[in-house]
Design goal:
Strand order of the largest sheet of chain B: 1-2
Distance between the termini of chain B: 17 Å
Shape of chain C: globular
Order of helices and strands of chain B: HHHEEHHHHHHHHHH
Largest sheet of chain C: 2 strands, antiparallel
Oligomer: heterotrimer
Number of helices of chain B: 13
Radius of gyration of chain B: 24 Å
Structural class of chain B: mainly alpha
Radius of gyration of chain C: 24 Å
Order of helices and strands of chain C: HHHHHEEHEHEHHHHHHH
Helix content of chain B: over 70%
Strand order of the largest sheet of chain C: 1-2
Chains: A alpha/beta (449), B mainly alpha (296), C mainly alpha (335)
Structural class of chain C: mainly alpha
Shape of chain B: flat
Number of helices of chain C: 14
Strand content of chain B: under 5%
Chain lengths: 449, 296, 335
C-alpha cells in the first residue's frame, strides 16, 4: 500500500489507496520487492498509521464554514484533531465567519468563487443549496470520495436521494443531520397550566395554547430577528398540514400552491403568531429559546439546535414532540462539505471529505454539535436523550427536505420567493395576497401553477 | 486663522448657566449609557449576564473572565488577539499612505490647477459615495488578474487590504487636504517662487510643514474608518491570519452561542484603539476642523 | 489663483495626480460600468449569464404589486424616513450642543470628548449595544430602556421600539388627505409613503454615533466666527438671539451643507447597523436598499437584480451629491 501511494505522488497513473480494505479492479498498484517491504515494516510505527499511505500530504487545508463558537466549533475542532493525526504535515486553516445563518459567510464565498479564488473545502447545506455554486462550474463532484470511503453504504437511502444532484453526481459529504420540525416545551409551565401531553394536531395545539394563556403564561416563544425564524415556523406548518408527499410536491410542481391546504396553513400561521411574545421581531431564535428556558414562554417551534441551547444553559426540564401534524415525518437538513473547482489543495481537501464522512469523525462531531450522524452506524450511547430519540425517528420516518435551510429549493426561490411573502404576511395577515405571492414565486421558479 | 482655545470660562453663576450645565450633563449621560452597559456586562460572570432583566445593574462580583476569553479565546471561542494584530499591521500603513496620497492630490488640486481640474475634482469625490457592495466581485477579479500578471498576491493579504483602503480613501483625503490648502494664501507661494522655489520645494518647505492640522483630521478619520471596516475585510480576506479585528469581533458577537458578557467585552476591546485616538487626539481633531479642513 | 506654471511643472503636476486618477478610473468608474452591465443581464443564479434582458430587473423593482416591488418600495420609504430623521436630529442636537459649549463652559474639553467619542465606535458595536438596550420585552416584563422608564414611573414612554410594525401615514380620510386626493396626489396617502415607527430605533442609534461629530463641525464653525463681528452686533444693540440669527447662522450654512453631505451619504448606504441591530424588521419595516441588495445578491444569488438595486442606490446618492458639487465649485469660482 505504502509503495503504491508513494508511486502515486510522482505518477498519477498509480492508484491512491485511502481505505485499506478496498482495492478496485483496474487500479494500478505497486508490489514492492521483498527487501523493501521488510525494511519498511521494520521502520513502521503502528502509532503512525498514515505512514502506510506513503508520503504524507503537505501544504494547507483551508476550511470555510460558519461554525465559530460553542458546540459546533468544538465539534469542528475534534475533526481538525483527527485530520491532524492522519496528516501531520498539513497546516489546517480554519476560515470561519459567523453571522446570519451563514449569510455573511456565503456572501464572502460567492464573491471569492466568482472572482476566481477558493478555499479547499467549505460548509454547504446538503440539497439544492448546491445550486448556489452552479455545479459543476464552481464546485466539482466528489463521487470518488463516496467510492473510496464507501459512503453509499453508510448513509440512508432518502438522504442519498437528497444528496444526489440532478446531474447524478454528489457534490458534498454530509457530517450531520438536524431536524427542523420539533416542538419544544417547558414541562414546569405545562404542569402549572394542567397540561399533560404535547399537542399532536393544530386543534390540540391551540387548545393547549388557550389553556396556557388562561393560566397567564405566554404560550409561544418566537424569534424573527435573523430573517429565518418565521419562515422556519411556516415551513413546519406546511409539513404538518400537507403531509410528507404534499409538502415535497410543493417544491417539485406536483402540489399546487393554490391548494386549499396552503390556505389552511397560512391561517394556522396567522393564528399561531397571535399566541407569541409581542417582541418577536427583536429576538433571534436563541433569545426565543431563552424565553422557554427562563420560563417566560411555554412552547417553541425550532430546529433541534435548540437542544444545544438547553444543554449549554444546563436546563433539563423540557420536553419535545414533532410539530403538530408532522408525526412520522422528519423535516431534515444536513451540513455537508463541498469541493470547489479551484481548490488549491485538492488532495488535502479529499482527505478532509473522506474524514467528514467517516464514523470516527461523525461520532466526535455530532454529540458536540447537538445533531445526529448522517451515517446509520454511529453508537447511540454517545448521544443525549433527545438525540437518541431523533436517531430512532431518523431510521423509520419519512424524510422531507427543509426549504429554509437550503435542501428543498433553489436559493432564489428559498430565500426570496418563499421567504419575502412570509415576512410580509406575518405583519399584514393578508392570506389571499400571501398565497398569490407564493404562487407567483413558484411560477417564477419554473413551476407554473 | 482663529485660535482653537476656548474663550475663558465665565466666573459668575446664573440660573441659566445652571440649566446649561444640567443639559450638558444629561447629554453626556446619554452618550455614555451604551458604554456603561458594555462595561458592566463585560465585567459580569456568564451566569449573571444571562439575566437580561438585570442588564442595568452593576455586577455583584467583578470578573475579568469575559475580557480574558474575548482576547485569548477559549476551547469553544477564537479570541480577538490575532485579528487585533492584523488590524494594526493594516491600519498603520494604510492610514499613513492614504494621508500622503491625499496631501499630494490636495496640493495639486488646490495650488496647481490645470485645465479640467474643476471637472476632475468632483469625479474624484464621487468615489466616496458608491455602495461598495456593488463592486466586490470586479474587485476580487481585478486582484486575481493583477496577480497573474505581476505575481504579486493581493487577494487575502494585508497588502491587498491596504491597497483597497488607500484607493477608496483617495476621495475623502483629497477633499480634506484640498480644502485646507485652499485656505492657505497664495501670496506666500508667489513670494517663494520669486525666490526660485519649484513645485517640489514649495510642497516640501512651505505647505507640508503647515499641514499638521489637516494631517491630524485625515489620520484620525482614516484610522477610524479602516479600523471599523467590515465589508472589505469580509470580502478580501479568506484566512484568519489576515482577518481584521471587526471580523474577529463578528465571529464572537455575530454568533448565537456566545454569552453576552463575552460579546460585550469583545466589543469594548475592539473599540479601544479608536477610542484612545479620540481621547488623546480629540482636541487636535477639533483644531484641524477649525483650520478649515472640512468646510463646505 | 495658482502660481504661474512652468511647463515641466505642469507636466509633473499631472503626473503626480495620474496614479490616483487611474486607480479611481478602474476601481470606481469601470466597476460601476460593470455593475450597470450586469443590471441589464439575466444573471439570476450563480452562473454568470450575460444575456441582455433590457430593463427587466428595474421593472421588477418599480412596476406592479409583486413581492419584490412591494419590498423595494418599502426600502425606499424606510431609507428616506431614516435619512430625514437622522439628518434632522443630528443637525438639531449637534448645533444645540455646539451653541451650549460655545458659552464659555467649564470642562469643555471633557464634554467635547464625551460627545465625540461614539464616532470612534464601529456600527457593528453600536448596533449590538443599542439592540440590547432597545429590546422591548413584554409590557409587564420590560427589558432594556423600558425597565428604566418603568422604574422612573414613566410607563407611557415604554415603546416596542424596532419591533413596532406601525406605519404612520397620512390617512386619506384626513383633511390634508382629502385635499391630496382631490388634486390627484392620492397615492401619497398610502403606506408606501408613510414612516415606519420601527425606524426610530435605528435613528436613535445612528444619531448617538454621529451627532457628536456634527457638534464638532458646528463648534469649529462657531469658533471661526470672529469675535469682533459678534461684538459689533452687540454694540448695535442686538440681543444674543439676534446675534445667532442674523450673524452666526448665515455664516454656518457651509457647515450645514457639509453635514448634510457627509451624514447623508452614510445614511443612504446604511448597512452594518441594520445587520447588527434590527435585520429587515416586521414586514420589512427596517429593511433598506443596501441590505436588500446584499441579501438579493448573495443569499438569493439574483446577481442582476442586486446590481439593479445597487445602481438605483447610486443614482439616489448622485441626486444628493451632484448639486452639492456644483454648488461648491460655483462658490469657489466666486472667491
Amino acid at each position: 500500500m505504502a509503495a503504491t501511494n508513494q508511486k502515486n505522488v510522482a505518477d498519477k497513473t498509480y492508484a491512491r489507496i485511502e481505505n485499506a480494505d478496498l482495492i478496485e479492479v483496474g487500479w494500478k498498484i505497486c508490489v514492492p520487492a521483498k527487501a523493501d517491504a521488510d525494511a519498511f515494516l521494520k521502520a513502521f510505527d503502528p502509532n503512525k498509521p498514515w505512514l502506510l499511505f506513503g508520503a504524507g500530504k503537505k501544504g494547507q487545508l483551508l476550511v470555510g464554514s460558519w461554525w465559530t463558537n460553542g458546540g459546533e466549533f468544538a465539534g469542528l475542532n475534534e475533526m481538525f484533531k483527527l485530520y491532524k493525526a492522519a496528516n501531520p504535515d498539513v497546516e489546517i486553516v480554519n476560515a470561519a465567519i459567523a453571522g446570519g445563518a451563514g449569510t455573511n459567510f456565503k456572501g464572502q464565498l460567492l464573491t471569492q468563487l466568482l472572482g476566481g479564488v477558493a478555499p479547499d473545502t467549505f460548509q454547504l447545506h446538503a440539497g439544492l443549496e448546491v445550486e448556489t455554486y452552479n455545479p459543476p462550474t464552481l464546485v466539482v463532484p466528489v463521487d470518488d470520495v463516496y467510492k473510496s470511503a464507501n459512503l453509499e453504504a453508510a448513509f440512508p437511502k432518502d438522504l442519498l436521494t437528497l444528496l444526489k444532484y440532478k446531474d447524478g453526481h454528489y457534490y458534498g459529504v454530509p457530517v450531520n443531520i438536524h431536524r427542523a420540525n420539533v416542538l419544544w416545551y417547558n414541562k414546569a409551565l405545562f404542569t402549572k397550566a394542567g397540561i399533560t401531553k404535547a399537542p399532536e394536531t393544530w386543534d390540540e395545539f391551540f387548545a393547549t395554547a388557550d389553556k396556557l394563556k388562561a393560566a397567564g403564561i405566554t404560550p409561544v416563544a418566537l424569534g424573527g430577528k435573523d430573517g429565518f425564524e418565521l419562515q422556519h415556523t411556516f415551513e413546519t406548518i406546511l409539513v404538518g398540514t400537507l403531509g410528507a408527499d404534499g409538502y415535497r410536491g410543493l417544491w417539485t410542481g406536483k402540489t399546487s400552491w393554490k391548494d386549499a391546504k396552503v390556505t389552511d396553513a397560512l391561517n394556522t400561521f396567522k393564528k399561531y403568531i397571535t399566541y407569541a411574545n409581542a417582541d418577536h421581531d427583536a429576538l433571534s431564535w436563541a433569545s426565543a429559546t431563552a424565553l422557554l428556558i427562563n420560563g417566560k414562554a411555554a412552547m417553541n417551534i425550532m430546529g433541534d439546535w435548540a437542544n444545544g441551547e438547553f444543554t449549554a444553559a444546563k436546563f433539563t426540564d423540557y420536553g419535545w414532540a414533532p410539530t403538530p401534524g408532522s408525526k412520522g415525518i422528519y423535516d431534515a437538513l444536513s451540513d455537508s462539505f463541498a469541493l470547489p473547482a479551484k481548490a488549491p489543495n485538492v488532495d488535502n481537501a479529499k482527505a478532509w471529505l473522506a474524514l467528514a464522512g467517516s464514523k470516527a469523525a461523525q461520532e466526535k462531531f455530532n454529540p458536540a454539535k447537538g445533531s445526529i450522524c448522517a451515517r446509520t452506524d454511529c453508537d447511540p450511547a454517545l448521544f443525549n436523550a433527545y438525540l437518541q430519540s431523533a436517531i430512532s425517528d431518523w431510521k423509520v420516518n419519512a424524510i422531507v427536505p427543509s426549504v429554509v435551510h437550503g435542501a428543498a429549493a433553489t436559493p432564489s426561490w428559498a430565500s426570496k420567493g418563499y421567504s419575502d411573502p412570509v415576512v410580509l404576511f406575518a405583519s399584514t395577515g393578508d392570506v389571499a395576497k400571501a398565497q398569490a405571492a407564493l404562487v407567483a414565486a413558484a411560477a417564477a421558479a419554473g413551476f407554473p401553477q | 486663522m482663529t485660535t482653537a482655545t476656548p474663550r475663558a470660562p465665565a466666573r459668575h453663576f446664573h440660573p441659566l448657566r445652571i440649566a446649561l450645565y444640567a443639559v450638558l450633563v444629561l447629554a453626556a449621560l446619554f452618550y455614555l449609557t451604551p458604554i456603561y452597559v458594555l462595561l458592566i456586562t463585560g465585567f459580569k460572570s456568564s451566569t449573571e449576564a444571562q439575566n437580561i432583566f438585570n442588564m442595568w445593574v452593576p455586577p455583584d462580583v467583578i470578573s475579568f473572565r469575559a475580557f480574558q476569553t474575548a482576547w485569548f479565546g477559549a476551547a469553544d471561542t477564537v479570541g480577538l488577539q490575532q485579528g487585533f494584530w492584523n488590524s494594526v499591521q493594516l491600519v498603520v500603513p494604510a492610514t499613513l499612505i492614504s494621508s500622503m496620497i491625499g496631501s499630494v492630490n490636495g496640493y495639486i488640486l488646490a495650488k496647481w490647477k490645470f485645465r479640467g481640474a474643476d471637472l476632475l475634482f468632483p469625479l474624484i469625490l464621487f468615489g466616496m459615495f458608491i455602495p461598495y457592495q456593488s463592486i466586490l466581485i470586479p474587485l476580487v477579479q481585478t486582484y486575481r488578474i493583477f496577480e497573474q500578471f505581476t505575481g504579486i498576491k493581493l487577494f487575502s493579504t494585508i497588502l491587498g487590504l491596504i491597497v483597497v483602503h488607500c484607493i477608496y480613501g483617495i476621495p475623502i483625503t483629497t477633499l480634506i487636504f484640498r480644502n485646507y490648502y485652499a485656505s492657505i494664501p497664495t501670496e506666500m507661494i508667489e513670494a517663494s517662487r520669486i525666490d526660485g522655489a519649484n513645485i517640489f520645494t514649495i510642497y516640501r518647505y512651505i505647505l507640508f510643514p503647515l499641514s499638521v492640522p489637516a494631517f491630524v483630521v485625515v489620520l484620525i478619520w482614516q484610522f477610524t474608518s479602516i479600523w471599523n471596516d467590515f465589508l472589505f475585510g469580509i470580502s478580501l480576506a479568506n484566512d484568519p491570519r489576515v482577518y481584521p479585528i471587526t471580523l474577529s469581533l463578528n465571529n464572537i458577537a455575530g454568533s448565537f452561542h456566545v454569552p453576552w458578557n463575552i460579546q460585550m467585552a469583545a466589543a469594548l476591546l475592539t473599540a479601544v484603539p479608536p477610542l484612545l485616538v479620540y481621547i488623546f487626539l480629540g482636541r487636535y481633531f477639533m483644531r484641524g476642523l477649525m483650520a478649515g479642513s472640512l468646510k463646505g | 489663483m495658482s502660481p504661474k506654471h512652468r511647463n515641466w511643472e505642469r507636466v509633473v503636476s499631472i503626473l503626480l495626480l495620474l496614479p490616483s486618477i487611474l486607480a479611481l478610473g478602474i476601481f470606481v468608474y469601470a466597476f460601476i460600468a460593470w455593475t450597470g452591465y450586469i443590471s441589464l443581464a439575466k444573471w439570476d443564479s450563480a452562473a454568470p449569464d450575460f444575456t441582455f434582458v433590457g430593463l427587466r430587473n428595474f421593472e421588477h423593482l418599480f412596476i406592479g404589486d409583486g413581492t419584490d416591488a412591494i419590498r423595494f418600495r418599502y426600502d425606499l420609504r424606510n431609507m428616506v424616513g431614516f435619512t430625514a430623521f437622522f439628518l434632522l436630529s443630528c443637525i438639531i442636537i449637534g448645533f444645540g450642543l455646539a451653541v451650549l459649549l460655545d458659552q464659555r463652559v467649564r470642562g469643555e474639553a471633557v464634554f467635547r470628548s464625551i460627545f465625540l467619542f461614539p464616532m470612534a465606535v464601529s456600527f457593528i458595536v453600536t448596533g449590538v449595544a443599542w439592540r440590547w438596550m432597545l429590546t422591548p420585552g413584554e409590557a409587564n416584563d420590560p427589558v432594556g430602556v423600558n425597565i428604566i422608564f418603568t422604574q422612573l414611573g414613566l410607563k407611557n414612554l415604554q415603546s416596542t421600539w424596532f419591533t413596532d410594525p406601525t406605519i404612520a401615514y397620512l390617512s386619506p380620510d384626513s383633511g390634508v388627505g382629502a385635499i391630496l386626493n382631490s388634486i390627484g396626489l392620492g397615492f401619497l396617502t398610502t403606506k408606501d409613503f408613510g414612516y415606519p415607527l420601527a425606524i426610530t430605533s435605528l435613528v436613535i442609534a445612528a444619531m448617538w454615533q454621529l451627532s457628536g461629530y456634527t457638534m464638532a463641525l458646528y463648534l469649529a464653525g462657531l469658533r471661526s466666527v470672529p469675535d469682533e463681528l459678534r461684538e459689533a452686533a452687540r454694540m448695535d444693540g442686538a440681543s444674543e438671539v439676534q446675534v445667532y440669527r442674523h450673524i452666526i447662522l448665515p455664516l454656518l450654512q457651509p457647515v450645514t451643507l457639509s453635514v448634510v453631505i457627509i451624514l447623508g451619504h452614510i445614511s443612504l448606504k446604511i448597512f452594518d447597523l441594520v445587520v447588527s441591530m434590527t435585520g429587515p424588521g416586521p414586514g420589512f419595516a427596517t429593511d433598506v436598499p443596501a441590505y436588500n441588495m446584499w441579501k438579493t445578491t448573495f443569499d438569493a444569488t439574483l446577481f442582476s437584480q442586486g446590481a439593479a438595486i445597487g445602481l438605483v442606490l447610486l443614482v439616489l446618492v448622485a441626486i444628493l451629491i451632484i448639486p452639492y458639487l456644483r454648488y461648491s465649485i460655483r462658490a469657489e469660482a466666486q472667491v
